[in-house]
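Is this the right way to post structure tokens for a design question? Let me know if I should format differently. Anyway, here goes:
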């Protein structure tokens, strides 16, 4: 495991580990442990939509790749307790076909899992906020032009900027602090020199020659 990143995230590179995590129940298990702390399979069951025995199996599978481990802080030893090894995770695909395929599979599961997050926030969280916090919430859909190196540097700069807040201990935050969730997508678009797909002879959409705007 490597934690050599601003957030202290668990870093995944092995294709087998990427495929293991590319499962809705396993993603739900890991997210719940990271957000709410140690739990048993029975405690996780109602939150991840699986029976305790199925959750237990998925936990052991996650443990195989070092994503979760036993937690020994419980006063009762009647059930096995689990904890996430880090507050979050990130992954990098290898250049192999297997690595690229596994990365795409995991990315797809994560996109699907977070697809309705903004709508759920709008319905259940936003109404309970006071006006000050409600005014700070929002969404941005910005397009810009950058090289691969520039995009990498931009992402690193963003992470360095917010890392102190990510790693702040939630047990002693400043007065008035709240948990804030930031969903950040980087979606590079193919250029004009990208390999042609079948059917690419179709006419361009109106405005294709216009510069991107935010």
């Amino acid at each position: 495991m490597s934690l050599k990143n601003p957030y202290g995230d668990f870093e995944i590179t092995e294709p087998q580990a990427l495929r293991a995590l590319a499962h809705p129940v396993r993603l739900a298990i890991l997210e719940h442990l990271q957000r709410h702390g140690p739990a048993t399979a029975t405690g996780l069951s109602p939150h991840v939509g699986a029976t305790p025995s199925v959750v237990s199996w998925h936990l052991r599978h996650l443990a195989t790749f070092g994503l979760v481990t036993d937690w020994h802080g419980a006063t009762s030893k009647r059930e096995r307790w689990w904890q996430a090894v880090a507050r979050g995770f990130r992954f990098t695909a290898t250049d192999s076909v297997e690595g690229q395929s596994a990365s795409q599979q995991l990315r797809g599961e994560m996109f699907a899992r977070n697809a309705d997050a903004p709508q759920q926030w709008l319905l259940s969280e936003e109404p309970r906020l006071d006006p000050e916090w409600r005014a700070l919430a929002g969404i941005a859909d910005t397009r810009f032009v950058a090289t691969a190196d520039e995009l990498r540097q931009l992402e690193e700069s963003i992470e360095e900027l917010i890392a102190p807040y990510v790693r702040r201990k939630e047990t002693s935050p400043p007065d008035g602090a709240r948990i804030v969730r930031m969903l950040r997508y980087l979606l590079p678009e193919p250029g004009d020199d990208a390999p042609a797909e079948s059917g690419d002879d179709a006419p361009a959409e109106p405005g294709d020659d216009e510069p991107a705007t935010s």
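Format looks fine. Someone answered above. Worth noting: The radius of gyration is 20 Å. Residues 198-214 have pLDDT under 50 and may be disordered.
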